[in-house]
Amino acid sequence: MSVLRDQLFALGIVPGDVVLIHSSMKALKTDQTPEVFLKELMSVLTCESTLLMPALTYDTVTPDQPFFSATDSEPCVGILPRTFAKMDGVERSLHPTHSVCAWGAKAELLTRDHILDDTPVGPHSPFMLLAKSGGKILFIGDILHACTLMHGIEEIVNAPYVMNTEKTLFTLKDTAGKVHIKEYYTHDFKGWEQEYTRIADILDYPDIQAGTLYAAPCFLLDAGTLISAATVCFKKDIYAFVSPVQ
Predict the structure, then answer these.
(1) What is the pLDDT of the chain when averaged over all its residues?
(2) Alpha-carbon distance 106 to 49, whole Å?
């Protein structure tokens, strides 16, 4: 019997699900390598499922260094995404700072149109398409603060703190070697601290569930319900998920 399988099923994840994972390898407290863990995860989910991970590159692809390679630009959000991006059968969306990697049944469908957006988490991003696929978000570790989908909701409601007003010209190379030159709006957030752990206060069971994977505390969210609930909060208070930097 697989401990990981039992824990995933207890959380509410079953083969066929579309799951985006934010992760802390350290929180798992396992002797497995990142690749072994990911292979076991894929085996449990099966290729009927779709597994996604953020492959964000905002630390290295910047207005001062405006070049992104879907093959060579390493994710800056942890060892599991960096490992996942290099695995066989994994697709990567084309975006300079907020690309997403995906594997499984809907990988190509969820990543192919990200190039159409000119914002970090626009309507064609895998983050926003997740809800349309009935997708879930799994946080491995106590890392609700890392919820990138919240940026997409901030874009929808035009939160005044989220975006720079001028575009930056980026050069992007896709996995086939084709070069794309495109202008993008980038995130701002100057003067504001993100407070996405407040997500836990606006969702109820079964739309948010707590559990564990190996030793890591985990949360599983329904993406569509999060978008709906957060949008209601933003309509009441546009600063509901940020606080001023002290």
Answers:
(1) 97
(2) 8
